[in-house]
Amino acid sequence: MEIVTAKGLVKDYGSLRAVDNINFEISRGECFGFLGPNGAGKTTVMSIIYCFMPPTSGNVKVFSMDVTENRSEIKSRIGVMPQEDNLDPDLTVLENLIVYARYFDILKKESLPLAKELLDFVEISEKADVNIKDLSGGMKRRLVLARSLINNPELLILDEPTTGLDPHSRHSVWDKLNQLKAKDTTLILTTHYMEEAEKLCDRVAIMDLGKIVTIDSPAGLMKKHGGNLEEVYLKLTGKQLKD
Ligand SMILES: Nc1ncnc2c1ncn2[C@@H]1O[C@H](COP(=O)(O)OP(=O)(O)OP(=O)(O)O)[C@@H](O)[C@H]1O
Ligand SMILES: [Mg+2]
Fold first, then answer.
1. How many Cβ atoms sit within 10 Å of the Cβ of residue 228?
2. What span, in angstroms and rounded, lies between the C-alpha atoms of 11 and 100?
3. Which ligand 1 atom sits nearest the alpha carbon of residue 207?
4. Mean pLDDT for the chain?
5. pLDDT score of 243 more than 70
6. CB neighbours of 61 closer than 8 A, spacing ≥ 6?
7. Where exactly are the structural domains of the chain?
8. 1-77+155-243 in CATH: which number?
9. Most C-beta atoms within 10 A of its C-beta, which of 5, 17, 26, 54?
10. Cα 83 from chain centroid (whole Å)
């Protein structure tokens, strides 16, 4: 069953066409990755899927509902880990989760045990009463992941979930995402790390200048184009991933 379908999706910011007539379908339980250089349009596509902003034209359905017509129903079933950490700096770690739970009408007596369970899941329980400014970058990322799970989402949208993390924290996040996948949660992610795409994604869309250049499994791409995923990426976008 399709969880997301996009047909002829276009997004303009003024005179800039950030997403240029793209089509894709994402199935239940799949991990689907958007790869591509800075400015390719990845975050824009994600923001449209989680109903943050409407498409300029085209048709996007999530859970078979139109993103422009059923925003609150769709949003209630999605978890989002945005590219920028937008935690509330005036609240503690635990309070950030409790306050966020209110947006989903989760009662305090339910949200407290749930928040503690999620802090445990992302292994930052010992920081529950710490202020956000006293967390490391990796801990903030893990807290945002915990927060995205507060409504037990069927679909999780992860915009560069491990950017800036050390290798240990990155592996720990991959481990958590694989556990969610095993529970049949659908994952959509963007990443600049080809190892991450290979480890997690069933299929990837490689984007450049607002267009999808190709959609395939990492293994399928490597077979078709030869070389590893980094070399495929270079071949298809003309852009190096490393200096
Ligand atoms: N709110 C906005 N207003 C105007 N232009 C925008 C806005 N958001 C993004 N853009 C432009 O749209 C294009 C696509 O941006 P987007 O953030 O979707 O790229 P991205 O693929 O996520 O890049 P990155 O890898 O750097 O995160 C860029 O040219 C960007 O400057
Ligand atoms: Mg982005």
1. 15
2. 29
3. 21
4. 95
5. no
6. 2, 4, 5, 6, 67
7. 1-77+155-243, 85-152
8. 3.40.50.300
9. 26
10. 8
